[in-house]
Predict the structure.
Amino acid sequence: MGTYLDHAATTPLRPSVVALMTQSLLTQGNASSVHSFGQRARQVVEQAREDIAASLTADRNEVIFTSGGTEADNLAIQGLYSSRNRGDEFKRPIVISAATEHHAVLEPIEWLVANRGAQVHLLQTDINGHISLTELEQFLAQNAAEVALISLMWVNNETGVIQDIPAISRLAERFDVPVHSDAVAALGHMPVDFAASGLAAMSITGHKIGGPVGQGALLVSRKTKLDPIFHGGGHERGMRPGTLDPAGSSALALAVKSAVADLPAEVGAWLELNRRVVEGVASAVPEAILVAGELEVVSERVPNIVDFIFPGCSGDSLLFLLDACGVAVSNGSACTAGVTSASHVLLAMGYSQRDASSCVRVSLGHTSTESDIDAFLQYLPEAYERAKAAGFTS
Ligand SMILES: Cc1ncc(COP(=O)(O)O)c(C=O)c1O
């Protein structure tokens, strides 16, 4: 079957989720219909909403179902931008974010710049991927009246670095600016408490936690106003129209519940595996650099993501060579027409173009075992030598 160490891209469905979803697919009736079929379908959706809210310390009305993290990010960014500028056209054109964000955040912002008069202010990060609260405070002190929103991810999906989201929310609140966070890589890998976070909006997705692809949610705090980006019905408090999906919502809810319940045990297991990877790589390839390696695992970096730079080789080559040995890992870069491109995240953290093209991410999930790590470590030295010999294509 091979060795799967790319859980941050997507992780296998939990068997309990498959069982529930299969059963829920037979739910008959449109959840918006008033007859009893409709009411039963609605009950399934509302129970799912309640379960997600309870797992994330939110109110049930704060859970807006979406088709995943990308839609949740788009809805948060475009919806907040629109509502913050409603009535006084583009009086608040500034969107604050960081260059280390996922494309699901960066591209909606770019779209607002190209089409809705937005101005983007990207915060610098240090070599560990942390923004500076002082820089943010100084910027807000001078520009808060013109800021529509801040969007900063809770955990970076390439490096696993945790951003201090509650501190960012507290700071932004002083300036009356709403904060959205993409918590896709955080959920199930560190404690996520929506109420305590102080966030206006938070994106989650199912397929990173053992739920189905195509099921996610945007949590929107009760005091936050957010315009819809789709139009066509009053579903989801008017923020996200479309027929409700009982099977998908209940599957997402079970994945969220299970991921949150399993977190304490998983953290312990991932920590062990994380150590095994880090120590094994240090001994097999001593020149490898552990990205954000000075940060404390668990409190500053999630334990399920380990990102390395393997100097002198293309991350793409290493990935393909490991794949040929049956080991699936990932790198942050997109490979376009055989030309290696660098990870935009590592570039934003201050790494050179070369280093940012030489990264490989190992990511763990609920099915990971010691033998997965051992298979990776077994093939790594030879794959690295061959990848170095192949050189770079750009
Ligand atoms: C941090 C982050 N945000 C958003 C997404 C997009 O989520 P989805 O695949 O559910 O659209 C991903 C998935 O790769 C991600 O890692």
